[in-house]
Amino acid sequence: MTALAPADSPAPQTTLLLAHEHALFREALRAGLERYSDLAIVEESPSGPMAKADAERVRPAIALIDSELPPDGGISVCAAIKNAGIPTKVLLMCSGDDHRLLVRALEAGAEGYVRHEGGLSEIVDGCHALGRDEAFIPPRLLAPLLRGLIVRRREGDAIAQRAANLSRREKEVFALLVAGQDQQGIAEALVISPATARTHLQNVLRKLDVHSRLEATALAIRHDLVPTQSAKGMI
Amino acid sequence: MVRSRQCPRQLAASRTVVSHGISTVVGPAGQRYVLNETALALWELCDGLTTSDEMVSAICVLFAAGQPDIAADVQRTLSEFETRHLLEWVDSDGDAAPATLTGSGQTFEERR
User: Model ipTM?
Assistant: First the structure.
């Protein structure tokens, strides 16, 4: 509220998108949140694609998204909203104290995390925190969350170190693998024999300590080791 | 100064007591402290394996404050723990590494 607003002006409302599969849950939550005059549910969505589309259309301040939202879960919806550049904050609703889920949610761009077990008060606290541009993590999850982030960081550093040990040729082979090339495609792109390409691939897998090309590709994507565009540029 | 390649570790004689949802750290001499949420999270990370730099990096992921501010807060909190004889500094392999920390603040309150 600005300093020039009349003293009796109503408090500005934080607009909410409520995304949950079940109408009963949405209706119950709406009834509970209607007791808070500074919060206003402006849209409801029963699925991930609808939640993303509604967020893009309505642009609520906060999207309250259930982690089990069909078909792909709330974290996927969160990532879709963030990747689309929609300026809506995401408060993920989950069951239990799964800090690994919380780490994934934060990595997907979620600003907050509330538990079903925390009841309406935790959801309201979360909405208010996000409305103040703060993150919201239930206190009891803070330590396991920080530990999870630290473990992830260590894993990432170790994997980056392994990738740094690849030779220049092996990095080219790795980039082509991540870009979707098979052994024959790699051989043609680098003008080497398929047998040589196979040897390089085996070295890449050994140095990365993975057991398959698919695992190597997943590792590269998850830890941003080889941008796909770079890989294409090498061809 | 907190040395980033060394890790804070809870003194073996200290312990954490949770009662009615309030976590209290009890020091070796029986002194009791009620920690705020962030201090309690840091306390739980004082396992002798986690560096203060790792703590700062993880907190920076969560909160919008700048890295220097968070680093200063973490340093102050760890300093308070040490000043109150709740933790020691060890190398990452677990060997004790005496360090001197200075700092002050009101991260937690003392209970008698």
Answer: 0.77
Closest by alpha carbon to A176, among A215, A220, A133, A234? A234
C-alpha distances (whole Å) from A21 to each of A43, A48, A93, A132 are 14, 9, 12, 28
| Closest residue by Cα to residue A90 from A121, A69, A111 | A111
Q: What is the DSSP string of B18-31?
A: EETTEEEEE-TTS-
Confidence label for A227 from pLDDT (cuts 50, 70 and 90)? low
Is A150's CB within 8 Å of B57's CB?
yes
Quickly list H helices, chain A: 23-33, 48-58, 74-83, 99-107, 119-131, 139-164, 168-178, 183-190, 194-208, 213-222, 228-234
Chain B: closest CA distance from residue A150 (Å)? 6
In angstroms, rounded to a whole number, what is the distance separating the alpha carbons of residues B76 and A103?
Answer: 26
B65 at the A interface (CB within 8 A)? no
Total residue count of chain A as it appears in this document = 235
Confidence grade of residue B22 (pLDDT, cut at 50, 70, 90): confident
pTM summary value: 0.70
Rounded CA separation A89/A110 (Å): 7
